Amino acid sequence: MIEPLYSLAGVFVGLLVGLTGVGGGSLMTPLLVLMFGFHPATAVGTDLLYASATKTAGTAVHGRHGTVDWQVVRRLASGSVPSAVAMLILLSLIDARAPAMAEVISTVLGIALILTAISVFFRQSIVARLAPLFMGEDDARIGRLTLILGVVLGVLVSLTSVGAGALGMTALLILYPKVPVARLVGSDIAHAVPLTLIAGLGHLSMGTVDLWLLASLLLGSIPGIIVGSMVAARVSDRVLVPLLAVTLAIVGFKLLF
C-alpha cells in the first residue's frame, strides 16, 4: 500500500533536489536506511528506479532546450554501463541482501556522502584549481578520462545509488572547462538515466526493490521537485549549500560510525 510517511519523505527530498540540484540518492538512500530502517540494498535499489523516473523528466527538459552534450553522455555511458553490469553480477553472486553486505554498502555510502559534501561545499575552489590543468588537453585524452570517470560512477552508483550527481558534475566541470555549465548539467542528468535504470532493474531482479515504497516516494517527490524548482531563485545558496554539505557530512559519518 501507499505509505503517507514515505510520500512525506519524498516531498522533503524533492524540495531539496529542486532547491539545490543535488542528486536525490545523496538524500533519499541514507534517509531510508537511517530513519526508516530499510536494508541498505533495498534502499539503494528502490532509489535507483526512483532516480531513473525523475531524471527522465529532467533529461526531456534539457533535451528540448539543447543543453545536453551527447558526446559527453556517450563517453560516460561507455564506462558506466559495463561497470554497473559487472557490479550487479557481483552483488547477485554474493547476495546483496546478506547481513555482511549491509555493512559494506553502508560503509561505502558513508564515504560517498562525505565526498559529496566536500564536492558540494568546495566545488568552486576545486574546479578553479584543477580545471586549468585540463584546459589544453587533447580531446582523445579527455575522452579516455571521461570513460574512466564513467567506470567509477557505474560501480559507485550500482552499490550506493550516490555519485552520478554532485561527484560526477564536479568531475565534468574539471574535465570540460570550456563547455557551458548548463550543457554539463544536462549531460550529467541524461547520463544518469540509463545508468540508474540499468542498475535499478538489476536490483529489481535481485529482489532489492520495494515497489510500494517506490510508488510512495514518487507520489511525494514529484510535486516536491516542482515546488522546490519554483522557489529556488528566491533562496540564497549561501545558506542552503553549506547547510546541505554539513548535513551530508554528518549523515556520512553516522553511517561509518
Detailed description of the structure:
The chain has 11 helices and no strands. The protein is an all-alpha fold and 257 residues long. Helix 1 (4-20) runs parallel beside helix 10 (211-231), helix 4 (70-94) packs parallel to helix 9 (181-205) and helix 5 packs antiparallel against helix 11. It is globular and about 50 Å long. The mean pLDDT is 89.
Largest sheet: none
Straight-line distance between termini: 33 Å
Q: How much of the sequence is in beta strands? A: under 5%
Task: Please give the share of residues in helix.
Answer: over 70%
Count of helical regions: 11
Order of helices and strands: HHHHHHHHHHH
Low-confidence sequence ranges: none
In short:
By secondary structure, the protein is mostly helical. It has helices spanning 4-20, 25-34, 40-64, 70-94, 99-121, 123-130, 139-160, 166-175, 181-205, 211-231, 237-256. The two termini are 33 Å apart.
Task: Draw up the topology in text.
Blueprint lengths: L3 H17 L4 H10 L5 H25 L5 H25 L4 H23 L1 H8 L8 H22 L5 H10 L5 H25 L5 H21 L5 H20 L1
Helix pairs in contact: 1-10, 2-3, 2-11, 3-7, 3-9, 3-10, 4-7, 4-9, 5-11, 6-8, 7-8, 8-9
Offer a few descriptive terms.
257 residues, globular, 0% strand, mainly alpha, single chain, 11 helices
